[in-house]
Amino acid sequence: SVLCRKCNVHMLKIFSRGYNINAQERICSMLNRSKIVIFIRGNERKPMCDHSRKVVSILKENGYKFESIDVNKDYNAEAGIQEYSSRDGIPQVYYKSELVGTYEEFMQIYEKGKLKEAFSG
Questions:
Q1: What residues contact 113, with CB distance under 8 A and at least 6 apart?
Q2: What three-state secondary structure class fits 9?
Q3: Alpha-carbon gap, residue 103 to 110, rounded angstroms
Q4: How far apart are CA 98 and CA 21, in angstroms?
Q5: Buried b vs exposed e over 61-94: b needs ≥16 C-beta within 10 Å?
Q6: Are 12 and 1 in contact (CB under 8 A)?
Q7: Residue 42 and residue 54: Cα distance in Å, rounded?
Q8: Ranges of H-type helices in the chain
Q9: Which pTM does this prediction carry?
Q10: What is the percent of the chain with per-residue pLDDT over 70, rounded to a whole number?
Q11: Half-sphere exposure of 41 toward its Cβ, with a 13 Å CA cutoff?
Q12: Which is nearest to 106 in space by CA: 46, 51, 27?
């Protein structure tokens, strides 16, 4: 693994897909924009898929401020975040640069009433 110079997060260097450390540093920089960062299709004012819409709605309804990254406008962000997390699927929700979950995991946390717990610490 490699330590990102910007956020001190250990990341895997994956060369099989031609992915490089500069791309991972860019993802790391995106994750540092806010405590809560979501990678969605569309933006927070106009999510472009049901899962993205639901995540945005839940965060807003519960008073969380967040930064959204529109993977429709930035394909490299979509490929990069999936490489960073080793997880397929959008949306992805992060708290302090750590993956909270993809849609299914986020919904489980929400339905169990554990959002506050997931976004503390």
A1: none
A2: coil
A3: 10
A4: 18
A5: eeebebbbbbbeeeeebbebbbbbbeeeebbbbb
A6: yes
A7: 12
A8: 21-31, 50-61, 75-85, 103-111, 115-118
A9: 0.82
A10: 83
A11: 11
A12: 51
